[in-house]
Amino acid sequence: MKAIKKLALATACAVATTGAMAEEKVLNVYNWSDYIAEDTLANFEAETGIKVVYDVFDSNDVLEAKLLSGKTGYDVVVPSATFLARQIQAGVFQPLDRSKLPQYENLDAPMMEKLTSHDPDNAYSIPYLWGTTGIGINVGQVTERLGEDMPADSWDLVFNPEIAAKLADCGITMLDAWDEVVPTVLNYLGEDPKSTDTALLNGKVKDTLSAVRPHIRYFHSSQYINDLANGDVCVTVGWSGDILQAMDRADEAENGVEVSYVIPKEGAGLWFDMLAIPKDASHPENAHKFLDFLMRKDVMAGISNYVWYPNAIPGSKEMIDEEITSDPSIYPTPEVEKNLFTFPVYAPKFDRAGSRMWTALKSGK
Amino acid sequence: MNIAQVFTQTLKQSGKKLVVLLPFSWLLVFFLIPFLIVLQISFSESRIAQPPFTDLTSFVDDVYTISLNLFNYIDLYEYDLYLSGYISSVKIAFTATTLCLLIGYPIAYAIAKLPPHTRNLALMLVILPSWTSFLIRIYAWIGILKQNGLINNALMGLGVIEQPLEILHTPIAVYIGIVYAYLPFMVLPIYTNLVKHDSSLLEAAADLGARPIGSFFKITLPLSVSGIVAGSMLVFIPSVGEFVIPELLGGPDTLMIGKLLWSEFFNARNWPGASAVAVVMLLLLILPITIFQRYQAKDLEEQANEH
Description:
The complex is a heterodimer. Chain A is an alpha/beta fold. Chain A has helices at about 1-20, 40-50, 60-70, 80-90, 110-115, 140-145, 155-160, 160-165, 180-190, 200-210, 225-230, 240-255, 285-295, 295-305, 320-325, 335-340, 350-360, and strands at about 25-30, 50-55, 75, 125-140, 170-175, 215-220, 235-240, 260, 270-275, 340. Chain A has 17 helices and ten strands. The longest helix of chain A has 20 residues, at about 1-20. A two-stranded antiparallel sheet of chain B has the order 1-2. Chain B has a single domain, classed as MetI-like fold, CATH 1.10.3720.10. The longest helix of chain B is centred in the first third of the chain and has 40 residues, at about 5-40. Chain B is mostly helical. Classes of the chains: A alpha/beta, B mainly alpha. The interface of A and B includes residues 92, 178, 358 and 363 of A.
């Protein structure tokens, strides 16, 4: 009996020491769907021997609910900057240890400066990819319905009821993310996209959306990639890279569908997806290694080449296909950039008002 | 009475208690405790923190206070989308249950009339689809119903229609989904009831000159009411709170309380509000659950009397 006790004690000690010395070689990552290159994880595993357990989501809301319930089991998560700001306030992340991130200097300094409005001192996060919220178009179907003089570069395509009515039969879809659509509508109406005026929200914004509501087939944040590529829908309010992926898939399928992505002339929302480590992550060491890996020029270039989203590592640009870097809908030109606005961070009260307006709108009430 | 007898006696009694204890502790752990947690959250306030709601109890200056915040229930009452959500959920569940009954009863009846050895095969066929994940089966319906899907392609290929039918993302798709998913829950209880019927009753009726249709409505149908009630409740109760089917197959205008609850919880990040929605939904379901219980109890009693 004594011998067994001793043995047990010895094992316990051994476990305790190895625990302190090195983490088990596992990393749990929770990222957006279709949001990494095919070989990124395999390369990381080969280089570090850390096994990556990879899981995906398609809405910030789902990620936030998991983070707020605590102990998600994930070591790296990728919220958008507006959501990250609130999550930092809720205290769900651990500060990054920059001594473990030698590649940190590769990050785009002006962008990091801009991001301090969401993450003061850049203490908790680094940018992963960024993009715009614009319009994806099935060129053939839309031209057929609107003729050559279609307003291809305007939000009128979606928010003007007369035009939307003509496109309803080939399918208009919208992101199921009110916190991006509302600022977009405000901007279209010539108001401040950051406005948190509930009267405006339930007045002009809702009226604009309600007028086109009958012509919208569905509100969803990932379904449209396939549907746009297959020709099941023809106009979609979506995320730049996702629509470009649809374009790519349609090309590969050679199904005669021509997809294009537009940043409308009225302007569009700009967003950043951020890498952060939850406070209760079980493998923070591995997480830091992964973040460092993701700041390498060759790695980020590989990801941008695959997902068609720009990254925050300027040094990677020369390794990215010219087809991507020269496309102003992906890397906006300075003129287009002037029209881009960042999405605001909302207080709980406006959050509730916005979400309810959205639910009511979606159900057609 | 010797010691051995006393011993077996106590063992029997404690055994009885143990048998009752098991289902009760199951309910306690997996139903009552989670419900109390939801109830507690419904009386709190939301905040930006982890977890995103306040504690009901506080201990300040040696005073222990419990504060119940009724705001979420008042808010629920004042926000009329919820009322229409509840009504529309009940409506959809009711229609789906009726459809299930109309389709399920003949199936159950046919199976009960089969010779005993083919019955099991038929029952197997009813249950077999549920060996695949519920979620995957609902996803499969997307492929069948969508614009470029199986049904539309087949009908257009045959020249029956020229424009694809819009079925997916409409209430029709939701009904198809619910009826498809819950049909076995209707068929099985009705079958169990029908198969126990004494066929001599029908023979006697025939001898006395009753037509088959007449004896079905006078004998079989009334005798199978408890099966119908059981099946209907098993379909109706989960349908009211259904989330997956309206989310995947329904359009944005398919208003169901499960979806509203989701958006209150995930999109509005209002956990206390979502909990209040859940509590009210449970209260709504108490009535049908009681009816179900009563019929079951009656059924059991009748069975006990027969033996």
